[in-house]
Amino acid sequence: NAGVTQTPKFQVLKTGQSMTLQCAQDMNHEYMSWYRQDPGMGLRLIHYSVGAGITDQGEVPNGYNVSRSTTEDFPLRLLSAAPSQTSVYFCASSYSQDNNYGYTFGSGTRLTVV
Amino acid sequence: KNQVEQSPQSLIILEGKNCTLQCNYTVSPFSNLRWYKQDTGRGPVSLTIMTFSENTKSNGRYTATLDADTKQSSLHITASQLSDSASYICVVTSGFNKFYFGSGTKLNVKP
Does residue A2 sit at the B interface (CB-CB below 8 Å)? Predict the structure, then answer.
């Protein structure tokens, strides 16, 4: 098992550009989610999905879109990048939505918007 | 307001020493509390999970305690090693699927 794979690891964007952060898991997990981690702050939930075809907003969804066409993949799209979106982004997956199973996190994507 | 506060923000200890990290929360209703270890440049990895009825849970040299009455948890690391250098994140689950993350304690173990 590769676990949760995120690509790219690093990315620099210009303000206004769009891009997609990729996340894939091979553990047949139903639940997947995207977080951003900023210095001095806890991980904040952007969007999540409880299964293929089902997505919902988290705490900080503005400026991001997601889709879940397959169980394995959960890409995060930045529509028009802004400097405030400079952050480290983590994708996580789990057997179920509750914390009892624990989450498997990807290694992160460090995004800088200039 | 549901919050998770961790202290200290950062900590430096010598290899071989013990240390204790704190997590205080105001989250309600409470479902469980989990401690994660996050190595630099990596995603968090789960260390322990405790539900309301559990007071102590160990994972090797890591021992987590929970006092649900005072809404406090601690993570005790025994005989620290250089590889323990990381950030430690406390996550409290409320209800079925609401998660509250602490901002973490950055531990630096020096030789």
Answer: no
Residue B81 φ/ψ, nearest 5 degrees: -125, 160
Reduced to 3 states (helix: H, G, I; strand: E, B; else coil), residue A90 is strand
Q: Which of residues 33-92 of A touch B (CB under 8 A)?
A: 40-45, 90, 92
The string of pLDDT tens digits covering residues A80-93 is 999 999 999 999 99
Q: Write phi, then psi, for A99 (nearest 5 degrees).
A: -80, -5
Q: Name the one residue in this structure whose structure tokens are 């405790």.
A: B50
Backbone angles phi, psi at B9, to 5 degrees: -65, -40
Q: What percent of chain A has pLDDT over 90?
A: 81
Closest CA to B45 of B89, B98, B111: B89
- Separation between Cα atoms, residue A5 and residue A32, nearest integer Å: 12
Contact between chains at A99 and B91 (C-beta distance less than 8 A) = yes
